[in-house]
Amino acid sequence: RAPRRYVLCEVVSEDPRCRQCIEDRAVGLAVRDAIGRVHGDYGLACCSISFTVKYLNAYTGTVLLRCRKDSYRLLCSALPFVRQLESRGQRYPCCLRTLHVGGTIRTCQKFLIQYNRRQLLVLLQNCTNEEERQCIQKSLLRCSLTEEQSRSGDEEDDDGTE
């Protein structure tokens, strides 16, 4: 089995419609196009062997890309050259920001949780009034309580079914 790397990226765009309209196929095509432009046919062939979009969250703009270990540097160096995504006949200007490179999906998930927590803390510190601060704090509490309840509920279901 060939070793792989997972590249966690964020779609950065000023147009809010961009995130809602992107599809994994469009991201894959844009990344392949950028690799071809930057590294030519050789780089494209190296990266295309095991390249795939493993996860795409259109609401948060989070993208998880998989490639072979020996070609992840080619992939990462081409990501800044993605300037637009084309979906449903529309072109949306955007860029892909690399957040993390990991050996497993689980390490990328752990990083993403920590990254989102840091982003929420920054958002909390930048609040202009007490009402915004309380609203964000309530949202944070709801998220973590829901997460704990769903985890404990899943564990009970798993134990009960086996």
TrEMBL record:
Chief localisation class: nucleus
Keywords, sorted A to Z: Nucleus, rRNA processing, tRNA processing
GO molecular function terms noted in the UniProt entry: ribonuclease P RNA binding
Subcellular location, record wording: Nucleus, Nucleolus
Pfam family, one: RNase_P_Rpp14
Assigned GO CC terms: multimeric ribonuclease P complex; nucleolus
InterPro entries noted in UniProt: Pop5/Rpp14/Rnp2-like, RNase_P/MRP_POP5, Rnp2-like_sf
GO BP term, pick one: tRNA 5'-leader removal
Transmembrane segments: none
Quaternary structure note: Component of nuclear RNase P and RNase MRP ribonucleoproteins. RNase P consists of a catalytic RNA moiety and 10 different protein chains; POP1, POP4, POP5, POP7, RPP14, RPP21, RPP25, RPP30, RPP38 and RPP40. Within the RNase P complex, POP1, POP7 and RPP25 form the 'finger' subcomplex, POP5, RPP14, RPP40 and homodimeric RPP30 form the 'palm' subcomplex, and RPP21, POP4 and RPP38 form the 'wrist' subcomplex. All subunits of the RNase P complex interact with the catalytic RNA. Several subunits of RNase P are also part of the RNase MRP complex.
UniProt family annotation: Belongs to the eukaryotic/archaeal RNase P protein component 2 family.
Purpose: Component of ribonuclease P, a protein complex that generates mature tRNA molecules by cleaving their 5'-ends. Also a component of the MRP ribonuclease complex, which cleaves pre-rRNA sequences.
Protein name: Ribonuclease P/MRP protein subunit POP5
Source organism of this protein record: Pampusana beccarii
Origin organism lineage: Eukaryota, Metazoa, Chordata, Craniata, Vertebrata
UniProt gene name: Pop5
